[in-house]
Amino acid sequence: MTDLADLRSDFPILDQKMNGHPLIYLDSASTSQKPNAVIDAIDDFYRTTNANVHRGAYGLSNDATDRYEAARARVAAFVNADAGEVAFNRGTTSALNQVAYGWGLYNLKPGDRVLLTLMEHHANIVPWQLVSRHTGAELVYVPHTGDYTLDLDAFTELLDDRVKVVGVTAMSNVLGTINPVRQIADAAHQIGALVVVDAAQAVPHVAVDVRAMDADFLAFSAHKMLGPTGIGVLYGKAELLETMEPAEGGGEMISDVQLDSSTWAAVPHKFEAGTPPIAEAIGLAAAVEYLERIGMDAVRNHEVEITGYALDRLGAIDALTIYGPTDTSNRGGAVSFTLADIHPHDLATILDQRGIAVRAGHHCARPLARSLNAPATARASFYIYNVRSDVDALVDGLQEAREIFGVA
Ligand code: C6P
Q1: Predicted model pTM
Q2: Domain 296-404 classified CATH 2.40.50.140?
Q3: What CATH number has the domain spanning 39-292?
Q4: Protein residues with CB under 6 Å of any ligand 1 atom
């Protein structure tokens, strides 16, 4: 296994007991833990540089602005974008709402279709539903195959000239499936549709290059990639951001305000109404720096290895069903499962008593859960600080659950 074990000491939260056991954190798809480098960067910003950005005519505010804009440049480079193509917001959810309300609301009309996948998180479904109420556009979904990959034949069939937007998750937060975004983008672009990529689970775990993907818009959250909560990123192709309307109005995003109309600040500032998440941007840049130091190839290799180990060990448990590809080459580290007819919340509670944190429920992907006929699953998800013994502890905990519930 790629040896990232030394990294664990960078994460102070992992050095504690939970219910009398060492904490084993297997819920990084929900939110990742934070290394000292990120915590310290935020602490340092508040101690030395805190002031509002793009406002002050004084040194401290200029320093804060410089650090904020340097963070933008660093984050943009991480996904091979230009700084002007990256707007900060509250997270993936807010970024996808910006696209739906800033682009969809003004460009969709009755008869148009938004083609989504059944694997989408609610964040890439509900904003389109809300906007379709105003535009009359219809939502259509690409199903998945029995092996939990996207049904590309169905995609091809559904992709006709009514489709104006294709929304796809780069990596499913439930199945772990990595979708062929470039292939989807090429097909969508042939019929003139835009491609909106939910990269909330992808950017933390694999090297993402917006140009190689040819994404028109791409969204991700800092808190899943070692950064703080409260900040996310919307990437958009420059020409789209230029013409797109802002979804939120207020201070900082304007060029001029008259009594009955306004003009917008230059991109990307027109998408950053109000005081932005400044310290959070500094923290996100520190997270990017930390990941770059490890190298995204090493991050991915570690994930492939620990996920492969988990799939092997979990797969050997009788009556345990894994929902997701078993081939690590096309999946990430989110492993959802059920065990006989034990309710996933009971599994999570039993594991919690052993200090093991997993998520249970529909994982904010109800249409997917319904299509799997599994309204709730338990989910273990891995990141750079997880080691094989974490998987072993999970398996022991599940064996205990079998005994408690008398599973034959
Ligand atoms: N998924 C999970 O446990 P926010 O909350 O805006 O940072 O991210 C939303 C989001 C969007 N897309 C995908 C693929 C996601 O996984 C998430 C967040 C968490 O799976 C919390 S529901």
Answers
A1: 0.98
A2: no
A3: 3.40.640.10
A4: 29-30, 91-93, 121, 123, 169, 173, 198, 200-201, 221, 232, 359, 363-364
